[in-house]
C-alpha cells in the first residue's frame, strides 16, 4: 500500500489508536497526544 508521506495516520496507526482506546481504556485525546509526540 502506498501512503502519502504526510499522512496523519496509516492503517497501522489507526489500529493502534483504536486498540489503545478499546483495550487500554485511554481517552482518544490522550492517545492522539501520545502518538503525536512520537
Automatic annotation (TrEMBL):
One Pfam family per UniProt: LZ_Tnp_IS481
Database matches in InterPro entries: DNA-bd_IS481-type (IPR024967)
Residues in DNA-binding domain copies: 1-34
Protein name per the record: DNA-binding domain-containing protein
Species assigned in the record: Halomonas urmiana
Amino acid at each position: 500500500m502506498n501512503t502519502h508521506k504526510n499522512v496523519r495516520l496509516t492503517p497501522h496507526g489507526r489500529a493502534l489508536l483504536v486498540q489503545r482506546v478499546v483495550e487500554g481504556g485511554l481517552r482518544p485525546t490522550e492517545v492522539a497526544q501520545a502518538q503525536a509526540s512520537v
